[in-house]
Every structure is written in structure tokens, then in C-alpha cells.
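=== Structure Prediction Worksheet ===
Name of assembly: unnamed complex
Input type: mixed (protein and possibly other molecules)
Chain count: two
Listed entries:
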Amino acid sequence: MDIAELRSAHPDHWKKATAIRTLTLDAVAAANSGHSGMPMGMADVATVLFEKHLKFDPKAPHWPDRDRFILSAGHGSMLLYALMYLTGYEDMPLSEIKDFRQWGAKTAGHPEFGHARGIETTTGPLGQGIANSVGFAIAEEIQRARWGKKIIDHHTYVMAGDGCLMEGVSQEAIGLAGMQKLGHLIVFWDNNNITIDGTVDMADITNQPMRFDASGWHVQEIDGHDPEAIDAAIELAKNDPRPSMIACKTHIALGHAAQDTSKGHGALTDPTQLQAAKEAYGAPMGDFEVAADVKAAWEAMGARGAATHQDWQTRFDALSASKQAEFNRQYAGEAPKKLSATIRALKKQISEGAPKVATRKSSEMTLEVINPICPETIGGSADLTGSNNTLTADMGTFNPDNRQGRYIYYGVREHGMAAAMNGMALHGGARPYGGTFMCFTDYARGAMRLSALMGVPATYVMTHDSIGLGEDGPTHQPVEHLAMLRATPNMHVFRPADTVETAEAWELALTSQKTPSVLALTRQGLPTVRTEHKTKNLTAQGAYVLADAEGKRQAILMATGSEVSIALAARDLLQAEGIGTRVVSMPCWELFAAQDEAYRKRVLPAGPVRVAVEAGVRFGWDQWLFGERGKRDKGDFVGMPGFGASAPADRLYKEFGITAEDTAAKVKALLG
Amino acid sequence: MDIAELRSAHPDHWKKATAIRTLTLDAVAAANSGHSGMPMGMADVATVLFEKHLKFDPKAPHWPDRDRFILSAGHGSMLLYALMYLTGYEDMPLSEIKDFRQWGAKTAGHPEFGHARGIETTTGPLGQGIANSVGFAIAEEIQRARWGKKIIDHHTYVMAGDGCLMEGVSQEAIGLAGMQKLGHLIVFWDNNNITIDGTVDMADITNQPMRFDASGWHVQEIDGHDPEAIDAAIELAKNDPRPSMIACKTHIALGHAAQDTSKGHGALTDPTQLQAAKEAYGAPMGDFEVAADVKAAWEAMGARGAATHQDWQTRFDALSASKQAEFNRQYAGEAPKKLSATIRALKKQISEGAPKVATRKSSEMTLEVINPICPETIGGSADLTGSNNTLTADMGTFNPDNRQGRYIYYGVREHGMAAAMNGMALHGGARPYGGTFMCFTDYARGAMRLSALMGVPATYVMTHDSIGLGEDGPTHQPVEHLAMLRATPNMHVFRPADTVETAEAWELALTSQKTPSVLALTRQGLPTVRTEHKTKNLTAQGAYVLADAEGKRQAILMATGSEVSIALAARDLLQAEGIGTRVVSMPCWELFAAQDEAYRKRVLPAGPVRVAVEAGVRFGWDQWLFGERGKRDKGDFVGMPGFGASAPADRLYKEFGITAEDTAAKVKALLG
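=== Predicted Assembly ===
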């Protein structure tokens, strides 16, 4: 690449783009760690996007109608940080750039949502950003239909690298976006032909434009260092009704000795090479130095956005007070006022009627009363709508012909669904939930972990939560998944025992601000165990005494979900023999652990033997069997020794010894 | 679809294909559960494949040079079971078909590897089969190059549905297979335009042939009910040097009232409709009835294979005795005799030299001595070769120009890599290992669980196993992953403390027959803690006393991996204050749990306080802190409270309180 030619062809543009490159080089050198090549390669695209197209206001980073800029290739975080610093985001002063990758800095190795206002999503695990962006774009479509173009009408721009496109989740995103004709989604592919291991063709020969085209995208191929070509391509992309992919041919680490090599992907810290690159750029030579006129030009881009924002504010202020309040409620992620009373009414009705239903059906019953009062919910399933019971009568299908619809047929795309849910929640004004079989959390883990890490209150409706699903067999029967999810920080794992607990779990999920929720629900019918109506949400305490011992308390049975009724039956057997037995329902360990010690000790006092019952592996249960007591007690576990099997559910429960009789026998063995 | 026309056009073919359809209908009806539509739609393709092309011998299901038949759309398991019964596999008598989906039957809801010889892999979780098949085909290529075409020269045939192709892992498989030009891989796409939620276009409009074409595949589109077209397409596919995709336009549940509907995907059990379908087919009307001449025709296909097998056996017997022995050793999955001595020599050298190295480097040092004596290893990385340290000098790169190479650049495809590794191991004659960052087990979980469920001894080289990776931050720092993996049944999770334990872990991984292994390895340098050479593999016991208390034993420190040296330093602090402290290294919980109780109690006797040290979440540790003791003792944990952060590693260890000082302080607090 002839740097001199690039400099002279578009000198003003060049200086602006160069500021990104030199800040990147300096920050990575100071940290002695990071990824220099991507920001240096994509600086031209970013500069044109921010200067000519992106709708953003650095003084109001959360303005709802801003365009979203998603750096899917998150290792190139310095691109984002440099853009934020240059355009004047308050959270991104130069001191943060100088502190790149250091303890307490907002400039983490990869962009972390929540560290600085202006970081739209956490990226780094490849493919997540492009998959999030589908959710951002869906939320925008729905809200544009709901509030009108004067209030919501913006684009989602994504920068994705070769790695993002090799990850399978990208295909799920591309397929979903293409079918949904998400015309406001524009993806720049950083086509530099380099990955960590070498040139891309060592691992992939995919014709990416053809691949996107095959899924219904608008595709362009340009020189990613030509500002006029970039501008023209963005203009065309904005005017096409399909999602757009712009393949930008770029040089990784442009102008550096490591240009076009896999070395250029990583940390370029050699001081001589760094200075040589700056010299070739014609850039200021000082560390972190940006010429005043260049900084001013960048800040002017931000100022342009402030004017656009003000125009929007005027339009927004013209809305009725009630519309404004409703808009603000949805964007604040606050549950509607009616929610609590609605849940209470359902609980009362259920406690009185005491139906026997599967908790997946309980969830549907709850959604049937929730969705009409929560217009911000966006539901869906990864091709298991009838099994996950995620669709309610009022929702309507979201598709290119119906942007008011709130139900999404995600296709067989668990990972893409979870990542899109993250994007919707991050967009604001949306509260996504989505379903699949619980076993296939395995497929969605990459995005579910990011829900937890980012503090995104998405709700995962995971049905068929144990061997209770029966004949489909061990590939479909989760046994370790409750443990996996419970081990994940900042995740509420609910396993409700009946419809009442399911409704309570939904209430907690919908009022959560910073924690995703997983609802583990049964395929098989369960009796109502909460037959006495309580207005209080008992699930909020995580665990509670469902049935206390009669007579001397000799045993405590702890159980979740479908095994709570087994524990109650075991209690009957034990009480019949005069063994006083308490049953504790534990629908959410995380919430129980968050209660004060006094409450926990009231629920699980020292003394009695303890037996836990859950149709999963024991892993993690020792915390409650032994972990927190004043004196040594005996404990045991009734559950799965390993993987399940294919057979009718009742037979499986018997064969694996998860029955009232087995539970009672273990209690008696402990009591000697 | 005009059934009468199909019947009359190819009457002999029709009868054979019909047998698959009626067995499916009867088995699903008897089980009142299952998936009828796919076997009914793909019966014609299967019949032509088995009759005209597939190289198989029902009397020798494990014959190494057989073609592999992979039912990626595993819910259509009755297709496979019917084929096996009809052609005469010993493990698949009619009684098994009649027992479909029942306790103890070989005919599980989805095909389970190990249930019956002839089931090549476990499928059901969509996309796994097609991704496995890439591994099958790679193993075949390598072995064809190694042993010559007379010994290894077969095809891998796959049946994949719309769901398989929507799953992201399919793109990883398609991309990898296309780049690798796996000409012996032939995928039939069951193009029936139906998924569970409805027609495919509700979720996807992807032009699949174009998508495969974009990744370098040979593509054909045919009528999947026309036996001549099927035959011709397979012939062309076999003769093309690229992997082939044959798009077969089919009718789901052909000839049944539910044909071409999403209802047809599931269990078709209505007796009247069932009888009507049989009548339209002109099939025998009895339950599970197959006309004798039709059964004989199917068995003749199997007999044809027996002759081909015999020819192969003659060629194999002509090999030298040593070649035969080596071939058989590799197919039996037995480690080479030299392995043990080689590992011992490395251990001795390390214990004497006591180098400070990262365990990812320790793993490379081990592989450098292992790979030259284990020609069956196939290594690789998901685009992190230099970081995972998975490549050794002798391996050579596997690519279209070098089929002798044993190292695979998988690209940024963790899930595809893991699924391909399963395929290689299942093919036989190969022992795969592959690397990525440990955090990205999240992406590979779908396939890793199947390694465990199938009992496939693949080895996962998971480096950068904690906050010790430093600046890349929380997206790249596993904290819950050790717990997730340990919670998974039949998985050995090794977290070695130094090079000696790493070498021991590799020895165990390479001698494992039925259990996959995960090696959790550090980015950061670690001191050698095993400075006294022991010939015995101490890691095989899972946990052992690394340093015992001097004086009265008041405390036990348990640690794994990088925290073992922290525990040793804490012991020094405590012993200096006269507190007798034992340090137990616990590189593999699963193996420790498998020791007899006497050994476990010797290592972890009752009495002393216990503190566990691990740079991950506490989840699961209570098992060892409290779970198995004769009297109540106190315990505590030094580790991560939640997600990590971006900063240099040393700073993170200090900030999160994972130091010798913190550990010693917790011990003293417990001792009061």
C-alpha cells in the first residue's frame, strides 16, 4: 500500500483517520498488550461512517434514536475508544486511553458494556457483535412501527472481521437478518485476509459476498481505504431494503512494518517501527498526540449529532405526556405498574383451582396475562414454539410484513437467538424472552454468558428440563445444565415447582434490571403444590418452607421443580412413620444465597438430616447439604448419577431412583 | 405427490423404500412418540444409497474401510434403525424396532453411539452429524495417505435436514470441509421445506446450494424421490474432487395425510391415517410386516458388502505383520508401548531442571515427545496455534496438498473443531486433540457434551484458564468453566500445576478409552512444584499430598493448577508461624472421586481446617470442603467472587485476593 498516495489523495480525511491509528499504536505500546492491526485497517471506514453518516451525540450517549455502532471484532477495542475520545464522549478522556487495559480503567482489553456510556455491547468473543446487531435491528424495526419514524428511525452499523464470519453464530445471524429483511442493518466486513494463525485461506475459502447474497442480503465490495467509495457504499446500503454487507478490502496494520501479516493482528510495540509508521503517516510524533485541528474536526462530528438530537427532542416533547411516560418506562426497563397485581390474581386463581399442568404450560398461562400489559416483551423460540409454549394470543408474528408483531420464529438457531435477545435488551425499550429445550443451552452458552457479564435482563425459557422429557433420550435430557447455569455469576436460575412459582419467577424476571433469568420448565404435568394463596412472592426469597414437620423435626427435604412434589410425597411417607419432615422448595439458589443469614438458618436450621432431590447431577448441592451449618449433620442426594436414557418419563424416574420411596429410604438410612 | 405414479415408475425400488416407511410408521405408533416424517421423506435416497453405493457389511459393522453413514437429522432415527434391521445387522433384530424408545432398547429416541454396532455417532442435537462428518472425512483422508488406497478408501455420507443447516455449527463444518476439499464427503440435504414451527421460510430464505457453492462445494439439486436421479447424483458426487452437497427435494411424511406439513415432522400415530398410508403404498398391512422378498432384497445389499469386505481382508492380510499390528493398535485406540517410558523420562528431566513455564508450554513440551511416537494424534487449534501451543515440529499441516499432515488449522470455529474431533475419534485410527481459550468452551459445549455422552476420548487443550491471562479481560477469563466441565458426567477435567502434572495428564488423556479429557492450562509461567521425581503417575489418583504438614497438622490447603504454587507459598507462611499445613494438589476431581474411600481419607483426613484455592468460582468446592468427613470441620475458599477484569495478571490476583497472604489469613481466621 502506498501510504504517500493515500495521504495525498484525501489529505483531510487522512489526518482524521490517522489519529485513530496513532492513538491505537500508542495505547497498545503503553499497555504492551492489545491488538493494533484492526483499528489501523478499519480507521478509514470508521472515519467516513462517523463523519458522514453516524447519528450520535457524545453528550447524550444513551439518546434512544441514535444509530448503534457495534464493534463485533472486539479485540480492535482501541478503534472504539479512539473514536469516543476523539468525538468527545465524557466517559472517554485521554487519561482512559493512556490507561488502556489497566486495572479500573474503562478501556478494558475488549469493549465492556457498562464501562463507558457509548459502548453499546460487550464484544470480544467473536461473532457476538454481529449476532447482537440482529437484535438491535429487530428492536428498532418494532419500535419504529410502534412509535413512528419521527421518534425511532436509526441504523445499526457493525464492524466484523474474518473471525466473526467464521464463527457459526454469524450464519445464524445472517440467516435471520436476511429472512427478516432488516434494512437498517449495515455490516462492514474487515476483509484483510489475516487471522491469528496466518492468511484466511489456511482455514477458509468462503466467498463471503456470495454467502451473504445467498441469505438475501444486499452486498457491495469496496476498497476499504477509499473514503469516497466508503461513503457511496454506505449511501447505497441505507437505501436498500435488505440488510447490507459491505466487504471492505483493507490492509491490517496499514502503514506499519507488520502490515498484511498475522503479526499485525496483535500488539505492535516496537518503538522504532512505531515511529516509522507515524512518520509515514505524516502524523504528530508525540505519544498520544493529536493535532488540535484534527481533534476539532472530530469534535465537530459530535456537535453535528447534538443538533440532530435536539431536533429529535423537540419531536419527542410534542408527544402526549402519557406517551412520553410510557416510552420512558419502556426505555428504563421498568415493569408496568399492573404487573404485580396481575401476577397475584393469577396466583390466587391457580392456588384455588390447583390444576395439574406442566410448568412450560404454566409459563404460557403467565405469559398470556403478562404480554397484554407488557408491550415491551418480544418473545420467540428456536423452532420449538409449540413445545416451549412461548407464543401468546396477542403477540402477532414479527416478519417483514408485520413490524408490529412481537413474536419471532428464530429458526433452529439457539445461539443466534440468545445473542439477538442481548441486542434487543441493549437497544432499550425491549424485554426479550426466548425458548428452546434446556439441553440446548449448550448451543446458546456463548451469548448467555454475555447476558450475565453485561447484566442484561433477558429471560431464557428452557423447557424439557430433565429426564422428565422421556423418550427423546440423553441427547435431549439436561443433567448438568442446572449446575452449569448456577455456576455462572449474575444469573438467576429458576426451577419452579408449579404454576404459582412459575408466575412468581416471571414476575422476578420481568422486574430484573441487571440479571438475566433462566426458567427451567418441565415437559410433564405437575400438581400444584402452592395450594394456599400468598400475596407475597415467596420465590423472591429463593427458598422457603413449603411444608413443615409435624412433631419433632428430624429431616429436611430440599427440592426444586418437578421434584418438589416427590419430596412432598416422601414427607407423607416419613410422617406416616412418625418422622417429622420439613420440605423446602428452592426455586432459585442465587436469591436464597442473597438472603440474610438469619433467614437462611430459619429455612435450613442445623440438626435434622438433609436430603436434596433434583433430577440432575449432585454437583453444587453440597453447598446446601453441608456448607453452612453450625454443627455436623448428615446429608444425601437423590438425583441423576450421570446421563439419562430414552424411555417414558415415569419409567426413567423409577429406574434412576428418583421417587418418594427412594427419598424416604435415604432419610431413614441417614437417621440410622 | 402422486403415490401411484411413484409406485409404478420404479416398482422394485418402491417396495424396498416402502419397508422403511411402514416400519417407521409402526414403530412410532407403538411408541406413541418419535418422528415419522423424515424417514418417510428420505427413504428413497437411503434405499438407493444402500443398494447402489454404500460399502458396508452388516456382519462386520466395525470393518475399518466401510463407508460411514451419518444421520445428522437424528430425530429421524427410525430411518437408521429400519436400514439396519432390513439389511441384517445383528444388533438390530425386529424386537428392537418393536421396542423403539423403550427402557433398555438399542433403539433410543435418537441414535446413540454404542447402543448398536452400526450406529456411527450420536445425533439429535442438530448440526452435530454434519459437523462430525468433517472429522470422519479428515480421518479417512489422513489414513488413505498413510495406509494406501488398498486399505483405506471410503466415503462419508450424511443426511442433514433444514435444522442442521440453520445451526451455526453447520457453517463451521461447511467452511472447513470446503477449504479442505474433502472429496469423499457427500451430504444429502433433506430439502422438505418444513420445520417444527412451520415452513422453513418463516425463519430462513437462504439459498442453500448457493451457500455451499460459496464455500467451495460441488452442488447438485435433484428430486429426492426419483431413484435414477439419486443414483446419478451420487455417482457424480463420488467423482468430484470437492465435498458434495446433493439437495434432495422431498416430501416430508410422503404419502401420509400429514405430508408436507409441520405435523408430519412429529409422531404420526393415528391408526386410520396409518392404514391409509400403507394402502396407498401398496404395502403389507400388518404391524411391522415386510414382505419376504423385500426383506431378502435388503439382505442381499448387506451380502454384497460382505464380499467387498472379504476382498479388503485379503489385501489387509497381505500387509506385513508389523503393519497389521500397528494398524490394529491405532484402531483399538491403544497407546503406543513407548508412551509410558517417554512420559517418565520427560518428568524426570523436568523435576531435575525445575523450569518456570506456563502449562500451555508444558503441554507443548509433552506433545513434542508424544507426537513422534503417536502417529494417530491429529492436532489443531481454532486459530490460536501460537497461544494454545498445540503444534509440534513433526506434524506437518493437513491440507489439500498434504494429506500426510496431522495438524489442522480449524479457523475460528471452536464448535466445528470439537465436533470434527468427535468424528475423527469415532472413525477410528485417530486420536484428536484441539485447542482454544478455555473461555470458549462456551462455543464448543454442544460437541463437548457429546464427547462425554458417547465416551469419545478426545482431548481438549484449553489454555488461558483463568484471570491469569490478564489484560484480555472478563470476556476471555473463565471463572465458571471448571465447574461447568466438572459437572458434566464422564469428563476428566485436568488442571495441572506444572509440567510434571501436565505430562501425567497427557498420559492419562492418551490412554483413556471412553472418557474425553480437558486440559486447563495457564497462559502465565508457573514454577515446577514436582521437584522430586516419581515414576508413578500421581495425577492418576486425581489428588495427592504434595507437601505435608510439619508438626501438628492443623490445616489442609487444596488447590489446582496455577494456585498450587500459591498454596505452597501460603504453607510456608503458616509453617513459619508454627501452623502445620498440608498442601493437596487436586489436578482431577473425577479421578480422585473414583479412588477408594481409604485413599481419599488419607489425603483429606478429618480434623484440620480446609481452605481451597482456585482462581475460579467456589461452585462445587463444598464437596471437598465439607462433603465427606467424619466430623464437622471448618472450611473456606480463596477464589473468584464473580467475573474477572482487564488488567495485568499479577494485579488481578492481588485485587481479587488470590494470594499466599490471603490464603494464610483465611486459615488463621478458621483456626480462630
